[in-house]
Amino acid sequence: MSNVISMDDRISKLHLRSTALRDRRYAIRHPFAADAELLDLASGTRYEGVTSDVSMGGCFVCTSRPMPAKSKARLTLKYKGLAAECLIVVRIVKPRIGMGIEFVDADELFTSMLERWIDKQRPNR
């Protein structure tokens, strides 16, 4: 029995790893700072933070007190006097830094407001 790993095995593992990372993010991220308020659906605990980036599929919320991974919450984003709400799931947690969240139940109002906010962030062409 040999414990030698062939080059093909290493390439295959690298390909799988890079594919998995690439598949997790399916929308372009845009730098975007909005106030974020979250209400944990299981415990009723409130969390606050500020987004650092946003896409049509989710965002990163900077907070020193992130929610646990897989938590479900109602998110309210506030930007320039406007607010948009949707349900989210916490996908990644970075302790004392923040959390990556996925929008899971975004209605047409949330989606259209988010599109307008993102469009305003893009440089004029």
Give a summary of the structure in a few sentences:
By secondary structure, this protein is α+β, with helices and mostly antiparallel strands.
According to CATH, the fold-level topology is Thrombin, subunit H
CATH superfamily, please? predicted glycosyltransferase like domains
The CATH class designation is Mainly Beta
Instruction: Give the count of structural domains.
Output: 1
Low-confidence segments, given as residue ranges, are 10-23
Beta-strand content: 35-45%
The number of helical segments is 2
The coarse overall form would be globular
Structural class: alpha+beta
Instruction: Walk across the major sheet and give the strand order.
Output: 2-3-4-7-6-5
* CATH architectural type: Beta Barrel
Number of extended strands: 7
**Through-space gap between termini:** 61 Å
Secondary-structure element string: HEEEEEEEH
The largest pleated sheet is described as: 6 strands, antiparallel, barrel
C-alpha Rg, in Å?
18 Å
